Structure formats: C-alpha cells, structure tokens
Model the fold of this input.
Amino acid sequence: MATHAGTHDDHDAKPGFAQRWLFATNHKDIGTMYLVFSLIMFFIGGSMAMIIRAELFEPGLQLVQPYFFNEMTTMHALIMIFGAVMPAFVGLANWMVPLMVGAPDMALPRMNNWSFWILPFAFVLLLSTLFMPGGAPAAGWVMYPPLVLQGGDSIAFMIFAIHLMGISSIMGAINIIATILNLRAPGMDLLKMPLFVWTWLITAFLLIAVMPVLAGAVTMLLTDKFFGTSFFNAAGGGDPLLYQHIFWFFGHPEVYIMILPAFGIISEIIPTFSRKPLFGYKPMVYATASIAFLSFTVWAHHMFTVGLPLGGLLFFMYATMLISVPTGVKVFNWVTTMWKGSLTFETPMLFAVAFVILFTIGGFSGVMLALVPADFQYHNTYFVVAHFHYVLVSGAVFGIMAGTYYWIPKWTGHMYSERWGKIHFWNSVIAVNVLFFPQHFLGLAGMPRRIPDYNVAFADWNMVSSIGGFWFGLSQLIFVGNIIYTVYFARQKASARVWEGARGLEWTVPSPAPHHTFEVPPVILPGMLAHDDVSH
Amino acid sequence: MSWTARIGAALALAAGSAAAAGATAAVGHPVPWQLNMTEGASPLSHQVYDLHMYAFWVCVGIGIVVFGAMIVAMMRFRKSRGAVAETWTHNTRLEVIWTVVPVLILIALALPATRILINESNTGDAGLTVKVTGFQWKWRYDYVDYQGRPVSRVGFISKLAFNSDEARQLDSGINPRSLKSKTGYDDYLLNVNHALVVPTHTKIRFVITADDVIHGWWVPALGWQADAVPGLIHDMWGEIDTPGTYRGQCAQLCGQDHAYMPIVIKAVSPAAFQGWLAAQESRARLDTIARTVQVTPVPAPAPQG
Done:
C-alpha cells in the first residue's frame, strides 16, 4: 500500500533537536508545535482569567488595582483569541488537512515553518508589555480610541505583536488554501472532502480577507499615537467611530474564524460515534459558506449603542438574525446525524454533544442580542460576556478538546485514558455552566462588563461564577495530564482506524502516523471516504 | 415518551421560575440573586422587557425541540442497546423545512423589534432636554430646555459619593455591605453626590456626548444605554412613570475608574421639579451677579456641584 511508503525515513536518519524543530518543515511537527504553543497560551490566558475571577469573588477591591484589572481583561482576551484558539485550529489543520486530502505535506513547508515561528516572538512582545513602565495595554482587546491612545508606549509593542500575528495567520491561511486546492489525492473531489477541510478552506479565505483590515486599523492607531495623525481624534477632524467600523469589519468574521473549524471537527466526530454518515453533507458545506459570506455584513451589531441611524440599525439587525438560519441548519443536521445511529459516548463524542448543546445556548443569546431594542439593555453587560464565552469556551475550546481526544491516538499511536478523559469532560462541562450561566443573570440585572468591583446586589452570582471559574481552570490540569500520559506513558496501542465508525483517508495510515505519509498519492477505494456517495 | 414530557416540563418550570423571580425585582436598582431584566419605569423599558421575554420564550421553545430530539436520540439509539445505524444521508424536504421555518420565526421576532426601535428613535416633542457629558470618571448634566423654555445655566457634575469612593479603595478595610442609603438600601458604588433630577410623566430627551474617551450612559429602568462619544451627539428619550430613584452605571470601558462613575436619577412630580428648577436657576443668577460685581468675599452658596 502506498500509505505505508512513509514508514522508513532513509534520507535523514536522526535529525538533531534544532534541525527537527527549529527548521521544521514537516506538517506533523509544525502541527505539534502549534498545539503545544496554544496549550501554553491557554494556561497563561487562563491564569489571567483566574485573577479576574478572584478579584470578582466578592464586592470590594481585595487583590489588584483597577488599572491592572483592565490589563488582565485586555491581555486575557488577546492571548486566548490570538494565542490559544487560533493557533490550536491552525495546529489541527497542519496535522489533519494533508492526512485528510491525501497530500504528502503542506503545499508550502518553509512558509509553514515561518508562520509558526513568528508566533512565539509575537507573544513575547505582547507579554513583555506586562513588565513595562505604565503597564500592559488596558483598553480592552478591542483597543477603542481615544482610550487606548492614553496608554503608555507599550501599545506600540501590542500593535507590532498584532502585526506579527496577522502575518502568521495570513501565511498559514495561504498555505492551507494552496494545500487544499492543489494537493488533493486523485478522486478527492472538492465535494468529497471531509467537513473539517471544507470549514478550514472557508476560514482561510476569511483570514486573508480580514487580517489586513485589522493591521490597517492598528496601524492608524499607531500613527495617531506617535506620529500626530488624527484618524480617530474628533478634535483633529477624525472620528472615533471610524475605528470601530474598521475593527469590527475584521472582528465579526474573526468570531467565525474561531468557530468554523470547530464546526468542522464536530462534523467529523458526530458521524464517527453515531456510526452513520453525516446527514446533509452538501447543505453543511453551503451553510458554512453562507455563514462566512454573511459574516461580512453584520459588523455593526457590535456597535448598536454608539448612535447609528435607524436605517443602519435595522439593516444590521436583520442581517445578524439571518446568520442564525445557516447556523440552525448545521445544528439540525448534527442532531439528525445522531438520529437512528448507533451511538457510543467516548470522550470526543461527549465533548461534541456538549458542544452542540452549549453552542446552541450561546446561539440563543446571540439571537436575543441581535434584537436592537433588547440589545440596548444587554450591550456591554455580563449577558454579552456569558454569550461569547458559551460560543468560545463551550464552543470553540470544547471543539478543540474534542478534536484532540479524537485524533491524539492517530498522532501518538496510543489511546488516551478514557477514564480520565471522562473525568475531565464531566468536570469541564459542569464547571463551565456554573461559571458562565449565572453571568446571564448578572448582565440582565444590570452588571456592566470590565469592572473590577460592583454593588453588593451582584455579589452572590459573582461568587457562584468565580467558584465555577476556579473549578473549570483546575479541571484543565486533567486535560494536560491526560495528554502527557498519552504521549509518554500510555501502553494501549491504537489501531490505524482507531474508532469503529471512523472513515476517511486519515484512518488508512498507521497509528502513530509515520513522519512522512502519502509520498505517493493514495488510491482511493470505494467506501474509503466518508462522503464518497453524495449524490446531491 | 413520558420522560421527554417530564424533561420538557422541568425545563419550562425552571425557565418560568426564573421569569417569576425576575419579575419581583425592584425597578430602580439591582437586587441580590436577581435573574431577569428589570421591567423598568419607562414606556420604552416595558416594551423592551416584553420583547426580551418574547425572544426568551421563543428560544426556550426551540431549545425544547432541539435538545429534546438530542436527548431522545442519545437514549434510544445507543449501541449498547443494540441500535443499528441507518445509512441514509440526506433529505431535501427536511433541509427546506428547517431553513424556512426559522426564517418565519425570525420574521415574527423582527416585527415587534422593528416597531419598538422606530418608537425608540423618535426623540421629538420632548418636554425636557438634558445634556449628558461623560468625563473620566464622572458625568456632567446640563438642563437645556423645559416645556419649550430655555433653561438658564443649570448644570452640575455628578460623581461617585464620598463614602463609596472611600470604601472602594484597595484594602480600605470598609465592608461594602456596611454602606446604606437613607432608606436602608445597599448603595455601594451606585450612589452619587448629586443625582440627576427629572420630572415624572414628561418625555425627556437626553443628548449624550463625552469630553475625553467613550463612555456609556446606562440606566436600566429607562430601557436603553447610549454610548457617549467625543465629537458626536447621541440622542435618546425616556419618560418615567413613577417617582423614585433609578440607578445605573457607565457601560463602556473608559479607563481605570470605569466602575466608579454611577448614574442616579431622582424622578419627582412635575410640580416639585418646577420648583427645584426655579431654585437652581435663581442660584445660578445670584452666582452670575456675584461674579459680575466681583464681591469676592461674599459667602455665596456653594456652587451646586
């Protein structure tokens, strides 16, 4: 079999550490580095969340000064978005996209190396601002002027860090598009590709479209701050709202960048553990494309309260509500995939089921937030904080964890501990609700976001939320433990297919996947692909 | 299946009790363990509350259907119960149904939302105009006109009350729960030195702007928040139907003391307001005279801050 051709590494017998990792061009090694990097960032960003929740544990100021609290909320968001969630998805794409389409590697391996190795430098720059005079940026991750321009020189470091992350993301996206469009094995038609590949293809186009917009916005901040321009300064003829329009033109597609690959992962896992093909493959692809297209037309729903004209409010309200239609289609298709299947509940499936339920709850609050008059009460409150953490933590992050448990046997050749995987799952899924569900109540009761202290009426639910926060944070140590166990200590060998219901090219290579796979394009046999009998 | 009905009933019960607990909340300020949005004290806030509850119940309904189907699937189609997977992969009629039905539901939600929004954006015919200016980290209120007559120089700064400011310092040693208003309300961080006084039963137009960075002026009882953006005027309206004290906070991150610039509105009867406004105007007039003739040592009434 062609798929076994990669098991012998005759040309470079044993590369040195620097040669293998620093000069890495292998998609599997680079994928591993992305994943390890994102896990480290997840814990750095998470420890900032712990500081936030500790300060909010009870009313009064006990631990940190308000300005430092603002630094924490700002850095927590930047690190989680750009350091944890996005690199994790790129890591999963690096590992799985070539395996799924039958490609020998990413199309542009050296650029792949570069797009990864930029990231540690970007985050050293960003994190170094914590130790600078005047402190880290503290104007929220949205960096609204004029407030952000009151920050110290550290904002220049933040802006350069964002430029670097943008360069990295754009190069990663180009690589993924080039791989998917050029390196598919013969017979792997576009409409036979796994959903994870499809969602990443669409995500990559979103990245290329919007990262330059963000770069433009922050560059204008830079010149406003240091070179005397007045793009966003009303006193100089500029407009503070111009920034918000540009930022959210990036920012809204960005939220889909953080969720579409998770949709893809869930669309792989649910059919596998239902032992039944994905229901409505083509509608799923079209729904993903529709979501991506609509994501460019809804940015001003982040700005409903800035004083937009009535016509603008109505347009953005209707467009935002419309996004729930393709999103609903995806949820209905997942549920129908489970219907009349033959279900088992290993850890990846548990996370996938939790994803569908909790992401949908985040979708419900999203529809409520789309209604402008109601948004005038929800905006900038903990209701919003609850909403986006439901879609980002129990959405995107649960998707990443589901994918990790699903594919780690393929990566390492060993089964993770199912028992500890389940312990991790149940702790996470209960804690995440204890953490974020009460935040709906706090927001509705009138608690604004980004405040370090609050009226005593908000004390009880904040304490509940903080307890959930510490619980969730601690639970993630189980995740790390299970990964370390699987990589270094696990005894149980994984088969090539790993899961009974798994279908697709990635399951035809041995576990662990050899360093080089598909050096000769695989011959696709009937029944090998998950979606090879899609007639419409 | 009987147990699906039971789960549905439990969900509805939980949601219903949430709504009921919310309904008992005080109108003017948050209360401990509050679960739901305030109904507020303005025609707009009542409409917004109704829209919010309507959207909530629609979501509960969809949730019961979707999660119910998932739960049924997870119970019935387990491999451990001998379930054998079907092989069907698509059904165009189903896809069309679950595209069209959500669109109809969305239209049903969008119609009332549009109606309320059009009402909300109509700031004409106001009996009172108040200009609100956000500063780091306090609010300034200027009375512009009342019943069609320009108000002469009535305006003041409103900032966090001294006792809250003292208690909120890091390691102040003061228990936030020890702060009480005259009526015994726990007003920590929601009390100011000078409340905004407004008449009841009067349409009030608020014109909102800021002096330094963007702030957000939000009193939940009015049913909306409005960003205060330097260089721009943002207008909204409210009409309070019951006399009382209504509290809110800055909603838009505006720097280190963002949490410490609350808003307090005191709504009084139109007659009382008339009297209060006249007194403020004559004080302002006295101030002007005092300043013009430069009788510096006169112990003029402290400028109403």
User: Anything to note?
Assistant: DSSP finds 15 helices and no strands in chain A. The mean pLDDT of chain A is 94. The two ends of chain A are 31 Å apart (CA to CA). The longest helix of chain A spans residues 66-101.
